[in-house]
Write a structure and sequence with these properties.
Blueprint lengths: L5 E6 L3 H12 L6 E5 L3 E3 L4 H6 L8 E3 H8 L2 E4 L2 E5 L4 E4 L4 E9 L4 E2 L9 E2 L6 H13 L5 E5 L3 H13 L6 E5 L11 H14 L2 E3 L4 E5 L2 E4 L4 E3 L2 E4 L3 E2 L17 E2 L12 E3 L4 E2 L8 H20 L14 E5 L3 E6 L2 E5 H16 L10
Parallel strand pairs: 1-2, 1-8, 2-5, 8-20, 10-17, 11-12, 11-17, 12-13, 19-21
Antiparallel strand pairs: 3-4, 6-7, 7-8, 9-18, 14-15, 15-16, 22-23, 23-24
Helix pairs in contact: 1-3, 1-7
């Protein structure tokens, strides 16, 4: 049974969609919007390392979606989609009910992409449920059951998680090792940033195993493709992202990884009444699956949804070719990396904190002025 048609349906409470709610809500269009999200709170990925390290609490890095929707008169439904039929313009929800729409926007993030045959360990994604998995890790370490933690993935996320875990479990005898396919961490960042990270890892006592392409994890051991073995009581996966499985049966045009192919306007290349943003979107000019891009897509997405309803030409989203990366370190320090240059210090951490808190303040209850 199909319920009343929604003008604008937002599937997922990601970084782009919270800005869509704020911008269209300020225009008085909240009553025309429905947000479907699996939870009432949406985490801000930029503050996750600080939460793991114990710097931030749960409320500090979570947006209250239900309160945000209530402020702007948006209908909020706490559930998930199980199927999308873009030809009929219908989304099926977990309880079997159907919602129809005029414009659908999808910002549902991504799922962990683990090596074939591996199911064990703790995945950072989806971040919305990582806090629960982290609590389980706390209990196991508190009981003395875990002493060797291995973080798999040497990108920014893996480096930040390794440093944050070192700070969280300082003085408790926990060994932390960072491993991955490349020879060293942060291969995608500048030479200076890599040197700073390696120096900080040495100071923090974080071990490193480069060129370690994980193919197995069982019986307390990680196995590399070249046959090397590494003892691991638990593994934290920060590896590449995968798509939501139900999208493959949707009829939407997807890329080889199962992500929704969109044009410069963030509109689906196969269905003009569907938009996608954040990790789930496959851009014409690809970028890493990172929150910085989802945040910048938000204003363009909001404007284009409105323009699409009005039959107006859409704007193009032009991702940065060079983007600032702020990497959290222990002892209230951070690295700023851009244009092949990198600096570090406490002042960078304070700068990052101001940026993150300013972003969160936009969506705080009662804040009408943030831009």
């Amino acid at each position: 049974m199909i319920e009343t048609e929604r003008d604008i349906m937002l599937l997922g409470g990601g970084h782009s969609h919270v800005e869509v709610i704020r911008r269209l809500g300020q225009l008085g269009l909240g009553s025309r919007i429905t947000l479907v999200s699996p939870g009432k709170h949406a985490p801000y990925s930029g503050m996750l390392p600080g939460y793991i390290a114990g710097i931030y609490g749960f409320e500090d890095f979570h947006i209250d979606l239900q309160a945000l929707c209530a402020r702007f008169g948006v209908t909020f439904q706490e559930t998930v989609a199980s199927h999308i039929d873009p030809d009929r313009r219908v989304v099926r929800l977990a309880d079997g009910s159907d919602l129809s729409y005029r414009q659908l926007s999808i910002d549902i993030g991504s799922t962990p992409s683990l090596p074939s045959g591996i199911t064990g360990g703790i995945s950072v994604k989806p971040i919305a449920s990582f806090t629960d998995r982290l609590s389980c890790l706390d209990r196991l370490i508190g009981d003395g059951n875990l002493l060797k933690l291995v973080v798999v993935g040497q990108g920014v996320a893996g480096v930040e998680v390794a440093f944050a875990l070192r700070q969280r479990f300082a003085g408790r005898g926990v060994q932390i090792t960072l491993v991955g396919r490349s020879t060293e961490p942060l291969r995608e960042r500048s030479f200076l940033a890599r040197r700073l990270v390696l120096r900080q890892m040495k100071r923090a006592g974080i071990a490193h195993q480069g060129s370690f392409d994980v193919v197995g994890f069982a019986n307390g051991e990680l196995v590399s493709r070249d046959g090397r073995r590494l003892g691991a009581d638990e593994v934290i996966w920060t590896t590449s992202s995968g798509s939501q499985g139900f999208l493959r049966d949707s009829g939407l045009l997807l890329d080889a990884g199962g992500f929704i192919r969109v044009g410069a306007s963030l509109r689906s290349l196969s269905h003009p009444d569907v938009f996608a943003a954040g990790d789930v979107a496959s851009l014409v000019d690809p970028r890493p699956k990172a929150g910085v891009f989802a945040v910048r897509q938000g204003p363009i997405l909001a404007e284009n949804i409105l323009r699409s309803l009005r039959g107006q030409p859409l704007l193009a989203y032009r991702p940065q070719r060079s983007w600032l990366v702020l990497i959290s370190l222990p002892e209230n320090q951070a690295i700023a990396d851009k244009w092949g240059l990198a600096v570090s210090g406490r002042w960078v951490a304070r700068w990052k904190d101001r940026i993150d808190r300013r972003f969160m303040q936009r969506y705080a209850s009662g804040d009408q002025s943030a831009r």
